[in-house]
Design goal:
Helix content is 41%, strand content 16%. The chain is α/β, with parallel strands linked by helices and 283 residues long. It is globular, with a radius of gyration of 19 Å. The strands form three sheets. The chain has a six-stranded parallel beta sheet. It binds NADP nicotinamide-adenine-dinucleotide phosphate. NADP nicotinamide-adenine-dinucleotide phosphate binds at residues 141, 164-167, 169-171, 188-192, 195, 208-211, 229-232, 262-263, 266.
């Protein structure tokens, strides 16, 4: 079998075009959606992520406000800045780029963001909304993975989904979204003794580990859908995922590439969350 490529770049483009259409309608009513992005310090990867988010906002007609601070910024000043943005009616989403410098408690910062503006969906309240099935912001990466899975046309009801990884930002919310879609869900992690025992039973595998070649061809059931969240570098320094793409694409029915799979969807879903926040505030 040779898997169909799930094209995250194309799907993200379609979603961003729809965001742009709806953002223009809000802007015409004087309610342009606004996202505040806060970057503390000089982490090179964070600078790239932030730049891409700001660029994507501009292209979709969202206003973005980028606030850059020195790595020595006191925690109290960051919290005060978040308070001010919480009260700013022109801002519908607030994103603080992680990781933060060591002296700043990321939990305190995330919880300081108003739940109404938590477009990353990382706060305990947003996580609780997801857990209990209430409406709320879904974390952008797993939200994007769900859209990629939906794009294959699969009905997840009764399907067995295996998530590898249990981080608060990817693995756990991913498992909850799959559960909400009526899949039977298994979560694997670093203490799972034999990953293959689980993944070989899966109709859908989502790999969110951060280690290349975590999922290889002999670990995949023929016809499975494989979503690769991982972002790693191979020996040649090229970006690669957690999945042995060449091998697994011979077995799976559909697979996301890295790059061009989950990455573009993460940014697209950030725009969706910000737009929906603005639409709700304008309703
Ligand atoms: P993380 O917080 O480091 O979590 C990694 C998870 O993988 C942990 O739950 C860990 O288990 C598990 N794990 C580690 N080694 C394992 C093994 N040998 N077998 C099974 N599970 C194992 O990372 P993350 O933030 O979830 O991100 C995961 C990957 O996705 C990274 O490569 C990251 O760069 C990428 N990512 C990509 C995007 C995107 O937009 N494309 C967005 C977010 C993240 P324990 O809990 O037991 O330690």
């Amino acid at each position: 079998m040779s898997a169909r490529l799930i094209d995250g770049t194309a799907l993200a483009r379609t979603i961003r075009a729809e965001v742009a259409r709806r953002a223009a309608a809000l802007t015409a009513r004087g309610r342009q959606p606004g996202l505040a992005v806060i970057l503390v310090g000089e982490d090179p990867a964070s600078q790239v992520y932030v730049r891409n988010k700001v660029k994507a906002c501009g292209e979709a007609g969202l206003r973005s406000v980028l606030e850059r601070y020195d790595a020595a910024l006191p925690e109290a000043e960051l919290l005060a800045r978040i308070d001010a943005l919480n009260a700013d009616a022109s801002i519908h989403g607030i994103l603080v780029q992680m990781p933060l410098p060591k002296h700043i408690d990321p939990h305190k910062v995330i919880e300081a963001i108003s739940t109404r503006k938590d477009v990353d969906g990382y706060s305990a309240l947003s996580a609780g909304e997801l857990l209990t099935g209430l409406p709320g912001f879904r974390p952008c990466t797993p939200y994007g993975c769900m859209k990629l899975i939906e794009s294959t046309g699969v009905d997840l009801r009764g399907k067995h989904a295996v998530v590898i990884g249990r981080s608060n930002t990817v693995g756990k919310p991913m498992a909850l979204l799959l559960l909400q879609a009526n899949a039977t869900v298994t979560i694997c992690h670093s203490a799972t003794p034999d990953l293959g025992v689980h993944t070989r039973q899966a109709d859908v595998v989502v790999a969110a580990v951060g280690r290349r070649n975590t999922l290889t061809a002999e670990m995949v059931k023929p016809g499975a859908i494989v979503i690769d969240v991982g972002m790693n570098r191979n020996d040649a320094g090229k970006l690669c995922g957690d999945v042995d793409f060449d091998g697994v694409s011979q077995v799976a029915s559909a697979i996301t590439p890295v790059p061009g799979g989950v990455g573009p969807m993460t940014i697209a879903m950030l725009l969706v969350n910000t737009l929906q926040s603005a639409e709700r505030e304008s309703a």
